[in-house]
Design brief:
Layout (H helix, E strand, L loop, with lengths): L5 H8 L21 H18 L6 E5 L1 H12 L6 E5 L15
Parallel strand pairs: 1-2
Helix pairs in contact: 2-3
Length: about 100
């Protein structure tokens, strides 16, 4: 997600932190990194966190464009994550029912 949602992300994940060790990947608005390199960056940051605190289960969650990025990460590293959660997926935009109303 871009940095405009930093505060919103904290609000949304506050309840999750009782059961999960939450980490967020923030994309600055001026970041022009391509999707493949962003996916590598997500995995690299995940490996750094795992070196600090080993976990057996890792849930990968993406929201909006983050869903596309999460799918790219999962495509390259299918055995890395236990579950994937896609919220408001930008990849399903063509299936939004209200689009046919003009």
């Amino acid at each position: 997600m871009d940095e405009t949602g930093n505060e919103l992300m904290r609000i949304q994940t506050a309840g999750l932190e009782t059961a999960f060790d939450v980490r967020c990947f923030v994309i600055p608005p001026d970041n022009l990194t391509n999707c493949d390199n962003m996916a590598l960056e997500v995995v690299s940051l995940t490996e750094i966190e795992l070196a600090k605190i080993p976990r057996s289960d890792i849930y990968l969650c993406g929201e909006s464009f983050g869903c596309c990025l999460a799918l790219k990460v999962l495509e390259r590293y299918p055995n890395y994550f236990t579950k994937i959660i896609l919220i408001n997926s930008a990849s399903s935009f063509n299936r939004v029912p209200w689009l046919k109303f003009g």
